[in-house]
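FAQ: What does a multi-protein file look like?

Like this. Sequence, then tokens, then the next protein.
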Amino acid sequence: MDISTLLSPECATIAAPGLSKKRALEMISQLAGEHHGNLNPQQLFESLLAREKMGTTGIGKGIALPHGRLANIDRPIAVFIKCDEAIPFDAIDGKPVDLLFALFVPEDAVQEHLATLAAMAKTLQDKETCRALRKCSTDSELYALVTS
């Protein structure tokens, strides 16, 4: 899986301290909306919230994979955020989250959606990869590492 086909440089960012789970999901939605044509940030946010209501996307070890399906997109879109301070996220291990890989997919792209999430989860389960991501100090460094 080539993350650079899903993630634009503008959608990989280091978040300032003080985020909450809700604010992180809003930030993800805003970034995706700003950098991917005519996507409505509120609609993106609502798709993430709808998924979170089904169960947390915090997979543990400081990682969350928020995702949503949308009728008005024709290809998957990703956003990657590294938080300067970990945030409570209701993760399955109860620990706060500082790495968020968000994915928006077309409604009918179920298999692609699941395959992309599985591949990213596997990537982020690597301790060395996560350690390197957590050490990034610039957006461009973060993007280069997550897409390498």
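And here is the next protein:
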Amino acid sequence: MFEIGVSARFEAAHRLIGDFGPATRMHGHTYRIEVAIRGPRLQPDGTLIDITRLQAALDAIVNDLHYRDLADVPGLEQINTTAENLAHYCWQRLAQALQGSPIVTLTVRIWENPDAYAAYEDQL
């Protein structure tokens, strides 16, 4: 299986709903998002997909999230913006942008800080 990946950072604020102690108050993170795609064969040009296509798809998401309250972002306004839910939201947007490519799996990992992340992975 071949794999390529890209990453980016963005700043965003959110508050959690439920029994999360101080995290139920508005707070922010410097998020790191990592995206990896896997597939069994390369295209004739020797790539899984053009990595700039993957980076552009990620950049579009990051531009929508950067310096935002996540509760105000369309698609996130009705969910608890845990790292797990944010990873799933980003996965869905990336899967849509990468339709038609020879990818088998897509993984999105959201780091809330240097030591903690949540990820979502599924087949396309």
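Q: Is there any per-entry metadata?
A: Some entries carry free-text notes. For the entry above: Helices lie at 51-65, 83-97.
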